Amino acid sequence: KNQVEQSPQSLIILEGKNCTLQCNYTVSPFSNLRWYKQDTGRGPVSLTIMTFSENTKSNGRYTATLDADTKQSSLHITASQLSDSASYICVVSARGPGDDYKLSFGAGTTVTVRA
Amino acid sequence: DTAVSQTPKYLVTQMGNDKSIKCEQNLGHDTMYWYKQDSKKFLKIMFSYNNKELIINETVPNRFSPKSPDKAHLNLHINSLELGDSAVYFCASSAGEKWSYNEQFFGPGTRLTVL
Q1: Residue range A92-110: mean pLDDT, rounded
Q2: A10-14 and A109-114 as β-strands: parallel, antiparallel, unpaired?
Q3: Residue B97 has what pLDDT?
Q4: B14 reaches A (C-beta below 8 A)
Q5: Any residues with CB less than 8 A from the CB of B91 and at least 6 apart, and which?
Q6: Which residues in chain A are contacts of B97 at CB distance < 8 A?
Q7: Cα distance from A14 to chain B (closest Cα, Å)?
Q8: How do strand B19-25 and strand B73-78 relate by DSSP bridges?
Q9: Using CB atoms, which residue from B41, B98, B107 is nearest to A87?
Q10: Residue B16 C-alpha, separation from nearest chain A C-alpha, in angstroms
Q11: Per-residue confidence in pLDDT tens, chain B, 115 aa
Q12: Does A42 sit within 8 Å of B108, measured CB to CB?
């Protein structure tokens, strides 16, 4: 079972509407969590990165939240635009012995924004 | 343009062949990575190099061999290609040694198709 689960797998929203994507993880011990946006045929682009002490972080119309106690994160897209159509990937980092880290990737949520 | 670049963008080859994918970054970053993204859009880290030294080597067949001639380049050589190697391969880079936290910048990807 993947240590990072994202939901929904895909969603369709109308331009101008808001939506929220979920990321639940079991990765431990937690180091940080990041959200990436991946346009079709392109490499992922970082949207936000949050450590244990951060509850929320914004990047323009994207707002990520983190509840490290319940091991949940969400990405909220406000006033969606056609350019928001992409796959959104949640990545969680766990800290191992010394400076060893391990990244765990979610399968992504595909967002389609329709006019 | 400052960026992470990969060549080729598309690679179609026969099973059993040997091929290489090149990656270069001109961002001055110390750490570079190779990721594999399968048909289900799952990103998996394969290798990471920091200042030409291997720091991450996930469970990857030894047919895959990364080569870092200098810290701006990380090439991926694949021997005896198999059908299951078909995927999109992304190169990425990040600043500093704390690769787990620093933002990663991804290349455009190389779509490898093994026939």
Answers
A1: 81
A2: parallel
A3: 65
A4: no
A5: B4, B6, B21, B23, B25, B32, B33, B34, B35, B74, B76, B106, B107
A6: 99
A7: 24
A8: antiparallel
A9: B41
A10: 26
A11: 669 999 999 999 999 999 999 999 999 998 999 999 988 778 888 988 887 778 777 778 889 999 998 889 999 999 999 999 999 999 999 987 656 677 889 999 999 999 9
A12: yes
Nearest-by-Cβ selection for B109 from A43, A107, A108: A43
Strands, sheet with B4-7, edge to edge from the N-terminal-most edge strand: B4-7, B19-25, B73-78, B64-70
Longest dimension (CA), chain A: 50
Work out the pLDDT band at A55, boundaries 50, 70, 90. Answer: very high
Q: Is B95 on the interface with A (CB under 8 A)?
A: no
Residue with the two structure tokens 């920091």? B50
Q: Is A18 helix (H, G, I), strand (E, B) or coil?
A: coil
Instruction: Answer for the pair A37, A91: CB distance below 8 angstroms, yes or no.
Output: no
A113: distance to nearest CA of chain B, Å?
19
